[in-house]
Design brief:
The protein has 346 residues and is an alpha+beta fold. It contains six helices and 26 strands. The protein folds into three domains: 7-147, Copper amine oxidase-like, N-terminal domain (Copper Amine Oxidase, Chain A, domain 1), CATH 3.30.457; 154-215, SH3 Domains (SH3 type barrels), CATH 2.30.30.40; 219-344, Alpha-Beta Complex (endopeptidase fold (from Nostoc punctiforme)), CATH 3.90.1720.10. It is 15% helix and 36% strand. A six-stranded antiparallel sheet has the order 21-26-22-23-24-25. Helix 3 (218-232) crosses helix 4 (254-266). It is elongated, with a radius of gyration of 26 Å. Residues 146-215 form the SH3b domain.
Length: 346
């Protein structure tokens, strides 16, 4: 696989705010020079490719900087287009062009991006400043200083450990973040972990389970929905027993199954019975269902007597039958007729 997905960005000689003197002029490629260092908010960026100074132009690997700034990146290898999104700012650029789109408006790009030896290069100053950062170049120390505009948008709702690795069994606990602490989410690692930065510039990993923070996003919800359904499917065929205890996994009824899956996967503690489960979270339209939503149905002469988990693609994961046990089936026929409401709890 090529390294085309490793984004490299081009820092032009325009980093100098004043015209350089002869002594300040960036060295040519044939001149031995001190390696270039890059700092973002005081932390040195460790890059997979060492920054280069080629004929007065500094080439810098920049994916790490964008992630540090909180921008989400996507790359279309067919159209050679990079999209960076940060908050309400979206920057779209087609490699090789002299213009880019910043929130739908055309802006000039003095030095066009290019692909060299499998690497995608884009102008650093333009991109960083478009995302609200400031860039300074110190020719004496060969240092790039980038100051990002960071918003600490996520609140800790329940004390959570800041860890050195996205793994509760490995790494170390760096700090305990108490309720009320504000953090900036730099990356969604997976369904269960967020990479964050604290206001005192610590970086690490915290649990992505809903009870710990108020952070939400469509991409995280999709990851967590997938994880929820995958876990529930581990019990396919498990016998149905009405009134089964939720404290064991050998048998289930509809609500004990749902309660166990949500508790084990996302640490969401649901009530024991379906009628009470239907009071949790918020109501969603049947046309807006996503994986992990709870579906409630009339049953046993009760307005709400059955619950299932929406599994995507018009499928539901549930149990109600001694013959079938836990299983997946289409959300149609009798289930559409008996459907009462849908609730979203994460």
């Amino acid at each position: 696989m090529t390294k085309s997905k490793a984004f490299l960005f081009l820092l032009t000689a325009s980093l100098l705010y004043a015209a350089p003197t002869h002594a300040e002029t960036a060295p040519q490629t044939h001149t031995a020079a001190k390696p270039i260092s890059i700092y973002i908010d005081g932390h040195q960026l460790q890059t997979e490719v060492e920054p280069l100074n080629l004929n007065g132009t500094v080439l810098v690997p920049m994916r790490g900087i964008f992630e540090e700034e909180g921008a989400k990146l996507s790359w279309n290898n067919v159209s050679k287009t990079v999209i960076a999104t940060k908050g309400k700012t979206t920057l779209t650029y087609h490699i090789g062009e002299h213009t880019a789109s910043l929130n739908g408006k055309k802006v000039a790009v003095d030095v066009p991006g290019q692909i060299v030896n499998g690497y995608t290069l884009i102008p650093l100053r333009f991109v960083s400043e478009a995302l609200g950062s400031s860039v300074n170049w110190d020719p004496n120390t060969k240092t790039v200083q980038i100051t990002s505009a960071i918003s600490y948008e996520t609140s800790i709702q329940r004390g959570v450990n800041l860890r050195s690795l996205p793994d509760a069994e490995k790494g170390t606990v760096l700090n305990l973040l108490p309720a009320g602490t504000k953090v900036h989410v730099t990356r969604e690692v997976n369904a269960f972990w967020l990479e964050v930065r604290t206001q005192d510039n610590q970086t690490g990993y915290i649990s992505a389970k809903p009870k710990y923070t108020d952070y939400t996003s469509p991409s995280l919800a999709e990851l967590q929905g997938d994880a929820l359904i995958a876990y529930g499917k581990k019990y396919l065929g498990a016998p149905y027993v009405f009134g089964a205890s939720p404290d064991q996994t050998k048998t289930f009824d509809c609500s004990s199954f749902v309660k166990r899956v949500f508790q084990d996967t996302l640490a969401i503690d649901l009530p024991r019975v379906s009628y009470d489960q239907a009071k949790v979270g918020k109501e969603v339209s049947i046309n807006d269902l996503r994986k992990g939503d709870l579906l409630f149905f009339s049953a046993r002469n009760l307005d709400i007597g059955h619950v299932a988990i929406y599994a995507g693609n018009n499928q539901i994961l549930h149990t109600y039958s001694k013959e079938l046990g836990v299983h997946v089936e289409a959300f149609d026929g009798q289930w559409k007729k008996r459907f009462v409401t849908a609730r979203r709890v994460f």
